[in-house]
Amino acid sequence: MSDPVKFGGAVHQVTSLTNPLVKNLRALQMKKHRDETGLFLGEGLKLVTDALEEQWPIDTICYAARGRQEARVMQTAAAVKARGGMVLEVNEAVLGKITRRDNPQMVVGAFRQKLTPLSAVRLAAGDVWVALEGVKDPGNLGTVIRTVDSVGAKGVIIIGETCDPFSLEAVRATMGSLFHVPLVRTGIDEFLGWKAKAGVRMVGTHLSGTTDWRRIASPEATVLLMGNEQSGLSDRFAGACDVLAKIAMAGHADSLNLAIATGVMLYELRRDVLVV
Ligand code: SAM
């Protein structure tokens, strides 16, 4: 059995749900506390190793006491400690409370929030970014980030009133891709001003689009613009697009889920680059 003290300095062993460290981590379930601290929660060993790989700042990790038997958990804890993060050894009850899960994963971390400024986004030929107008569902947002990562697109821009990309639900749905995909948060005017100057093609997706979704692949730098779950793409945004594409629909559903539609479009845009 590895000894937690081995990896340098104090490993706090915590079993009380009322411990202030635990209370602080639990409070990260609330947006207000995330905003105040600039931190967010993420679960699972893979997520922590993804963050370490990208040199992403990690504030704290907690691992279940049974993790002591797992070399990968102990190595990860040691790496977090070496980078100045706090390491807590906790029991299942504490892990369950922090993550609000009955069967929590063995590791949970608190990470520092990080966004890319829109002014830093520059597209080269062939690059694809996804822009989401007013995305509201954290599961959709996380799934889009994961899909962008999967197809080798470059990043995600969220525009206007959106859900919090750092909520536990959104982070969970990214499956660690949040640490690999640059994320921009911006306002409507700022985004449209940027687009006007950026020299990029903007492909919007719209149920009234007239371009077949299989005709959009291009070597041009492209921003794929997706609409809100309820109201779709606003007129203002639709008017700013160079192309409005529609994905054919055959059955009774009137639209696809946002994340599914994004996946279909991304695989078309990246069709010539992606090989198995
Ligand atoms: N009632 C909304 C509307 O009228 O657009 C439906 C929005 S849909 C759930 C969310 C987003 O997914 C849309 O704004 C669009 O970006 C994309 N989308 C969904 N189905 C699509 C389709 N068949 N063709 C093009 N885009 C689609």
TrEMBL record:
<feature type="domain" description="RNA 2-O ribose methyltransferase substrate binding">
    <location>
        <begin position="41"/>
        <end position="117"/>
    </location>
</feature>
<dbReference type="Pfam" id="PF22435">
    <property type="entry name" value="MRM3-like_sub_bind"/>
</dbReference>
<dbReference type="InterPro" id="IPR053888">
    <property type="entry name" value="MRM3-like_sub_bind"/>
</dbReference>
<dbReference type="InterPro" id="IPR051259">
    <property type="entry name" value="rRNA_Methyltransferase"/>
</dbReference>
<dbReference type="GO" id="GO:0008173">
    <property type="term" value="F:RNA methyltransferase activity"/>
</dbReference>
<dbReference type="InterPro" id="IPR029026">
    <property type="entry name" value="tRNA_m1G_MTases_N"/>
</dbReference>
<keyword id="KW-0489">Methyltransferase</keyword>
<dbReference type="InterPro" id="IPR013123">
    <property type="entry name" value="SpoU_subst-bd"/>
</dbReference>
<dbReference type="Pfam" id="PF00588">
    <property type="entry name" value="SpoU_methylase"/>
</dbReference>
<dbReference type="GO" id="GO:0006396">
    <property type="term" value="P:RNA processing"/>
</dbReference>
<dbReference type="InterPro" id="IPR029028">
    <property type="entry name" value="Alpha/beta_knot_MTases"/>
</dbReference>
<dbReference type="InterPro" id="IPR029064">
    <property type="entry name" value="Ribosomal_eL30-like_sf"/>
</dbReference>
<comment type="similarity">
    <text>Belongs to the class IV-like SAM-binding methyltransferase superfamily. RNA methyltransferase TrmH family.</text>
</comment>
<dbReference type="InterPro" id="IPR001537">
    <property type="entry name" value="SpoU_MeTrfase"/>
</dbReference>
<dbReference type="GO" id="GO:0005737">
    <property type="term" value="C:cytoplasm"/>
</dbReference>
<protein>
    <submittedName>
        <fullName>RNA methyltransferase</fullName>
    </submittedName>
</protein>
<dbReference type="GO" id="GO:0003723">
    <property type="term" value="F:RNA binding"/>
</dbReference>
<keyword id="KW-0808">Transferase</keyword>
<dbReference type="GO" id="GO:0032259">
    <property type="term" value="P:methylation"/>
</dbReference>
